[in-house]
Amino acid sequence: MTAPTTPQFHVYDTTLRDGAQQEGMNLSVADKLAIAPLLDELGVGFIEGGWPGAVPKDTEFFKRAAKELDLRNAELAAFGSTRKPGVRAVDDPQVRALVDSEAPVVAIVAKHDLRHAERALRTTGEENIAMIADTVAFLVREGRRVVVDAEHFFDGYRFDADYTRAAVVAGFEAGAEVVALCDTNGGMVPTWVADIVHELRGVVGPDAILGMHAHNDSGCAVANTLAAVEAGCSHIQGTVNGYGERTGNADLLAIVANLELKYGRSVLASGDGGLADLTRIAHAISEITNISPFARSPYVGASAFAHKAGLHASAIKVDPDLYQHIDPALVGNDMRMLVSDMAGRASIELKGRELGFDLAGRSELLGRVTDRVKDAEANGYTYEAADASFELLLVEEIDGERPQYFRVESWRTIVERSGSRGTPATAEATVKLHAGGERHVSTGEGNGPVNALDHALRQALIKVYPELESFELIDFKVRILDSMHGTDAVTRVLIETSDGQTAWSTVGVGPNLLEASWEALTDSAIWGLRNRGVAPR
Amino acid sequence: MTAPTTPQFHVYDTTLRDGAQQEGMNLSVADKLAIAPLLDELGVGFIEGGWPGAVPKDTEFFKRAAKELDLRNAELAAFGSTRKPGVRAVDDPQVRALVDSEAPVVAIVAKHDLRHAERALRTTGEENIAMIADTVAFLVREGRRVVVDAEHFFDGYRFDADYTRAAVVAGFEAGAEVVALCDTNGGMVPTWVADIVHELRGVVGPDAILGMHAHNDSGCAVANTLAAVEAGCSHIQGTVNGYGERTGNADLLAIVANLELKYGRSVLASGDGGLADLTRIAHAISEITNISPFARSPYVGASAFAHKAGLHASAIKVDPDLYQHIDPALVGNDMRMLVSDMAGRASIELKGRELGFDLAGRSELLGRVTDRVKDAEANGYTYEAADASFELLLVEEIDGERPQYFRVESWRTIVERSGSRGTPATAEATVKLHAGGERHVSTGEGNGPVNALDHALRQALIKVYPELESFELIDFKVRILDSMHGTDAVTRVLIETSDGQTAWSTVGVGPNLLEASWEALTDSAIWGLRNRGVAPR
């Protein structure tokens, strides 16, 4: 048999589709549109965006993605299913919707375990194979590159290898570019994967592009994917941070880092640049999914290169490479000594340079800024996603104070509801402050207390600083930091503001959510005014 | 060469020693004394308790363990180091302390990478090998079973195989029972491990007991350990929940479950009993370490057997084994159906059954509940992580109304700050409601508005429902749902409450964060009272 072939290695991300199946994850269209450019920047070759037709917000995603996204490295892929038993592919509205999504790549999930065809689809093995062949052929005729997701491939192979092989061959013969072998239930171990892929290779020939789609139920998803690549798979599927149903999908970041750094294979379309941003991209996506990053994640975790000082401390200082499997800078992470304070200055110097501040010769200043950042981070701040707040901190250390655009006397919010469930609550806020030589008192209303505070602050300042007119709050995120203390915990608020040209992010932290929000709101106004070159009035 | 041999497979737990190196973990002697019996119950063969002599609380642990612990399956192991360069083992106080600990098993860490011997120890390769041989021989003469932890074995082998092999042989010839091959920096992948262990086996002969000690820096710790076992290692080291420095040690629970269930090897001294308690033991140890369990952990995670896809729900109902890699009961875990926005009638029927409601014959009711769930989820609710709110919805549809424990007249929160940055804000809440035939008005204070509302609600109800005394808010999560609309967005609040015995979760949604919090707080009180069998008063 013959199969189409491309010379490249496929890194196929399914964070937005299979990753979103994770318990507790619920991505909006806006979330997906924000994640896709980060994946593209990393340099994946394919971004599977969802199931248009079956999930209304995925239909909308593909519509908006076509207009709004400008991807350099990745192709968008729509996920769907083979046609239903007993209908023509062209007449199946679910298949039709895949074409209508206008995604250039379509992945169709297709049963490759005879038991699933018979018991879940309640059809025959022959009809299931016809469903694969018809659906692939139809999509290829419609000009799509087709990936077959061979669902339950490994379990099916172990149950009835002949049937499963026939299904794979049918997909290739109908024109599929890739057949991705799915360990849907996640129970494989690497040697099982290697043996089966080797056997299958003998059936499909050397040129067929086989893929691997692993889940982590045995704790082996990364290793199973590496085993598949060693056995000749050249298309890998996975998710950022290993998101996914049950124990998660294979962690695409760890796989890519292993392939690039351990196997010496260049698999990212972005070249080395993407890999050097691995940690930043992993954390930025965590912010969007609002799922706390796992500190022990390979390569990108906050603890991944953290050493408890003591026994090895001096040896590590002299010869760090003897104590780490790779140089953390290769994946944009840092070695941290948990007791001593070796880390930090270099990255803060770099960050300063990025923002236009040359700290290179100013060792004492750099030391003070590093100390303040460490202190703040110990208290729950994070500057990773709040450049504007970091810049204000830097300005404060350089100039000795923050720019004094206004002086706050007091603020207050009142939220109340009269009546039972269903009656809406009202929120108002009053802000008293001094600016432009006068005292300003204003009250704002809003859907909730933060919204009301934002309105009141803006109203109080607008006469003195009409530039604020164009500022708009475009994102607001809340994270509870120590979840073991219930509502006593510390709250971190991240706010993103835009003036139509630039967008900037600020952070506030405190035991009181509204206090944290207030801090981020005022930082946002100050940074925005300073950035426009407005002097305090 | 010859080596001592035992017929058994060694499961060697190092949670209390290497696991305790994890960032943020700090185990007291009491913690260790509480964890050890759980490990013994699981059926591990060895419990490495710490480094007596070097760490004072570990010295105390071994002293108290000898008196207080009654272990059935496990031997205690003390961890230490080879003697220093240039002194006799008998004269090295650190080695002496290992004997004094009276642990029947001693593990000594010994350099197996020539670079580490020369650069970290600043000695010669020959002296390093003499240090291994002398220390092992001394401990064996003192009647101890000796495990050599061959530190940096794999990196050393790849750098200078001859030297590393000579070090391993020296350990066995001096009388070590086991040489455990350590991937100290955690950078190996399974095929590298397999190749090296195979090669080494040719050197040490078929009877030498080789062990594997893996770290997860490549995301392959479990698979690397399995590869080592396939290549003939019969001693495995790891930690519960994969605790450990950086990315953690190999997760002993996943390895043991894989060996028992995938490889069909009986490796636990407790027989099947221990495996069936795997989930309970993993969670009990999390309670002691005070590190939140990772929901996506293989086998034991809360999400490990949780299914979201509405698509498959009907098939899962018919044939659960087609959708899970093992029967979760084998490891003491449970299948859970998550009610999600792809939910259909089948998954809601299953969820109802899980909560004790038989909806099988009640098609009209099932239809109504499904419609309400879909409607609610479209508005931002999620019942995946809020079983208690889902149950109240179900009860409302069955009985025609929610249990009427109280009727809310109004509530109000005030948060205010006078003064500049740094002055703390104050929060108070007033609740007016009717319960037990009376009107109750109460005001609560708190760190923030939700905390204040919780206090006020509790105070207003406590006279009528003293059962609320034991309820405690243990988790509070906030998610902004459509993050592109800034503070106008919809907010979802998830609250977890405990009464010391049971924990339950509720959800609230609204444009106003405090309104959403109020909904989740009141649902929580209602569910808790109903669950205790309290009737509305």
Automatic annotation (TrEMBL), chains A, B:
Family label: Belongs to the alpha-IPM synthase/homocitrate synthase family.
- Coiled coil residues, start to end: none
Reactions it catalyzes: pyruvate + acetyl-CoA + H2O = (3R)-citramalate + CoA + H(+)
Keywords attached to this Swiss-Prot or TrEMBL record, sorted alphabetically, are: Amino-acid biosynthesis, Branched-chain amino acid biosynthesis, Isoleucine biosynthesis, Transferase
* This protein's name: Citramalate synthase
Please provide, alphabetically and separated by semicolons, the GO molecular function terms listed in this UniProt record: (R)-citramalate synthase activity; 2-isopropylmalate synthase activity
**Pyruvate carboxyltransferase domain sequence ranges:** 9-279
Q: Its pathway?
A: Amino-acid biosynthesis; L-isoleucine biosynthesis; 2-oxobutanoate from pyruvate: step 1/3
Source taxon at top rank? Bacteria
Q: Which PANTHER family match?
A: (R)-CITRAMALATE SYNTHASE, ALPHA-IPM SYNTHASE/HOMOCITRATE SYNTHASE
What the entry lists under SUPFAM superfamilies is as follows: 2-isopropylmalate synthase LeuA, allosteric (dimerisation) domain, Aldolase
Enzyme Commission (EC) number: 2.3.3.21
